[in-house]
Every structure is written in structure tokens, then in C-alpha cells.
Amino acid sequence: MLDLTATKTSYQKEVFSQVLQDVIKRVDKSFKNFFNGFGYPRFQGRNRYNSFTYPQMGFSIEDGKLNLSKIGNIKIILHREIEGKIKTCTIKKDIDQWYATFSCEIETPVPVEIKTETGIDVGLSSLITMSNGGQIEPPEFMRESEDKLTQEQKRSS
């Protein structure tokens, strides 16, 4: 049997194994997108790669602290209670702040209100024409300013 830990560099030995596996999955996804015609994967140098994910385990929340495997305990501010079972934990750096994002599996789905959208077209004869057939006429001062603009454009040309 092949010993995969023998091929790890000293830096890779300091990182939780599933985090490394998730990085490989992200690279694989980028190349699959490339071969499906979505553009060449962008190189993420060490200053651009600003997140990592614990996909299944290696993290826990205890006493207001996030325990990350091979990193240690980190004090966190929970903005809301976590509902359901935590599936993944993503740590992301944004400018000068670090954020922990949890993906959870919940038993009953949260009902989502379906909202209908209205398409809007900006036209020449009316200001706005909506997809339901309604029209909004422009205010009078707008038409006057359009006339003045037309005259000034004729004069300048």
C-alpha cells in the first residue's frame, strides 16, 4: 500500500488532510469547467487564495470557540444559533477580517415565499413600459429638458 504522507511537503503536513482534498476538488472542478468551455482556470497565488474548507470533520464549536484541527481554538462571534447538523465549515479572509461560514443540513426545509418579477423596458415614447402592459409617462420637466438638450446639440454641431 502506498504511503501518501511520505509525498507530503512539510507545509502540507501542517494542514488537515480533508482541507487538502477539498483544494484538489476545487482545482478539478476548475479544469472540468475549462473542458466544458467556460474558460481557462485562473491561477490563485498565495495572496489570492483566501479561503479553505473543512468538508466533513476537523472542526467543532465549544464554549464560543471554533476548534479547527491542526490550527487550534479560535474565539468567534456567533451572529445566530446554528440550526441543524453542520456539514462543512469554510474559513475565509475578506480584507482584514476572518469569517467562518457553516453549511448546515436541516430536517424540515424553510418555506420560501415566491415573488413574481416585473420586466421593465425604458422606451422613447413612454418613460417605462412594464411586462404587464402598464406604462409610466415621464414628468413634464423631463420632456422640456429633452427639448432643450436637442436644441443645444443642434447648435453645437
How would you describe the overall organization of this protein?
The protein has helices spanning 10-13, 17-35, 140-156, and strands spanning 51-54, 59-62, 65-68, 72-75, 85-94, 97-105, 120-122, 128-130, 135-136. By secondary structure, it is of the alpha+beta class. It has two domains: 8-105, no CATH class; 120-156, no CATH class. A three-stranded antiparallel beta sheet has the order 1-5-6. A three-stranded antiparallel beta sheet has the order 2-3-4, with no helix packed on it.
| Secondary-structure element order, N to C | HHEEEEEEEEEH
Total number of beta strands: 9
Dominant shape: elongated
State the oligomer: single chain
Number of helices: 3
Whole-number mean pLDDT: 81
Structural class: alpha+beta
Helix content: 25-40%
> Unreliable stretches, pLDDT < 50, 5 or more residues?
none
Distance between the termini: 82 Å
Radius of gyration: 27 Å
Strand line-up in the sheet with most strands:
1-5-6
**How many structural domains in the coordinates?**
2
Hey, roughly how much beta strand do the residues contain? 25-35%
The largest sheet is: 3 strands, antiparallel
